[in-house]
């Protein structure tokens, strides 16, 4: 028999306090629906009255399939509940629940609220009563609860008990400054459960010591039955407890999975990676590669010893199966790899080679030699595939580059303006045809080269029409006169939407770029099934 553990998402409220995050109304609605589909019990939409977006959000019934919650502070000191415009906005909000933030640290009451301890308790009491009188489910976030408890346990407990006694469904213990450690959380929550039952307690943990998730789990161990968190750990300063880590841990780790039902189905669990990436996309952020469970590297291995065992049974180096959270396993080829990495990557791209084929060892040696001079095949799988195919003799001789030349001219024109013109010329030979010479002007040398190279490839021109360069990254690998440049180029095929990355390395940045460009074109020709 499992016990219900409730999830409360505050991405749209505490997450909106993240530096650099600014949700529109449309964003909030998309995210709220995504959260409801995940099975989140409570969705805190924002703070009506704080800004036009949140006021509009709560201006009508949004039909969110969860307990849609409005956040705001308890009545201001010295005002009555019926004469507080901020509280009135909260009470009028179209929300199923109201979550009050209430002071519970005596120091904060004196310094930030500038009032008496008694008046703060009265404010909690009056605010809960007012919200209940309007038929709302009530939650009280006891701000700075743990710091408050350490400073004055009786007063912190009095705040929590007042909220509970007045009928708040949840009394949420907040680690507002995020500085409390898991052992302290567990000890203090255990004390609180002697006064307020655990099934009426929640935890709201900030991540300032990287313990947001651990603190939430510690609180559950000690008895709380609601966890507050955010998608991708968004939130004030270092963020809140990350629901993208908490949900799989609660669902997949025996200690919690055997004991609790968190209302997230298997299908919803398998959508977590997609949800996490969708949020990043909306925020115009790259996914955190190393995020647990949902990060692009969460199930990626470079190490040869790991790859070898994973190919025998993935469970050897995975704590959960990536599919359960909608992520995927990947084995990369690099100078940390062995034959198993090479075989796995060849299999992934559809090249079947016997594991005892001596060419595998040869290919691995070449990879290690080339990585030692700057190539990075784990970041450029398309270049690795070409290297492998060349060693296996399966790359047709499509195009021979006879020469290329880039000229950057910097001059003052007739109007006295400083102008720069960059022109690239490329001479190639396709089969037995006459050599083709193309010239193009670009905004920089790589752009000009790219345009010239793709201007006329004779019989292959149609294959590369949909190809475009979508990202270009340069890294200088060692400084001074011996500098070596690594160029990574990402290309996209407009017809299929596929993207791939190629690499070039040279002391000369133009030469490195040209290698990566050529790899990209040859890769596209192979993908398109072009023959020599
Ligand atoms: C721990 C947390 O994350 S709590 C949530 C924090 N989130 C936000 O603050 C975001 C939204 N906030 C806002 O838009 C604004 O602060 C508003 C609209 C709420 C209030 O704006 P203003 O009226 O201009 O007040 P301001 O923000 O300067 O200060 C907050 C006031 O509320 C009081 N206050 C703070 N917490 C509480 C509380 N729990 N109960 C009652 N009053 C409180 C403060 O003492 C201060 O009062 P003062 O103006 O008399 O000094
Ligand atoms: C309420 C809240 O966000 C906090 O105490 O951190």
UniProtKB/TrEMBL annotation:
<comment type="similarity">
    <text>Belongs to the alpha-IPM synthase/homocitrate synthase family.</text>
</comment>
<dbReference type="InterPro" id="IPR013709">
    <property type="entry name" value="2-isopropylmalate_synth_dimer"/>
</dbReference>
<dbReference type="InterPro" id="IPR005675">
    <property type="entry name" value="Citramal_synthase"/>
</dbReference>
<dbReference type="InterPro" id="IPR054691">
    <property type="entry name" value="LeuA/HCS_post-cat"/>
</dbReference>
<keyword id="KW-0028">Amino-acid biosynthesis</keyword>
<keyword id="KW-0412">Isoleucine biosynthesis</keyword>
<dbReference type="InterPro" id="IPR000891">
    <property type="entry name" value="PYR_CT"/>
</dbReference>
<dbReference type="Pfam" id="PF22617">
    <property type="entry name" value="HCS_D2"/>
</dbReference>
<keyword id="KW-0100">Branched-chain amino acid biosynthesis</keyword>
<protein>
    <recommendedName>
        <fullName>Citramalate synthase</fullName>
        <ecNumber>2.3.3.21</ecNumber>
    </recommendedName>
</protein>
<dbReference type="InterPro" id="IPR013785">
    <property type="entry name" value="Aldolase_TIM"/>
</dbReference>
<comment type="pathway">
    <text>Amino-acid biosynthesis; L-isoleucine biosynthesis; 2-oxobutanoate from pyruvate: step 1/3.</text>
</comment>
<feature type="domain" description="Pyruvate carboxyltransferase">
    <location>
        <begin position="5"/>
        <end position="270"/>
    </location>
</feature>
<dbReference type="Pfam" id="PF08502">
    <property type="entry name" value="LeuA_dimer"/>
</dbReference>
<dbReference type="InterPro" id="IPR036230">
    <property type="entry name" value="LeuA_allosteric_dom_sf"/>
</dbReference>
<dbReference type="Pfam" id="PF00682">
    <property type="entry name" value="HMGL-like"/>
</dbReference>
<keyword id="KW-0808">Transferase</keyword>
<dbReference type="InterPro" id="IPR002034">
    <property type="entry name" value="AIPM/Hcit_synth_CS"/>
</dbReference>
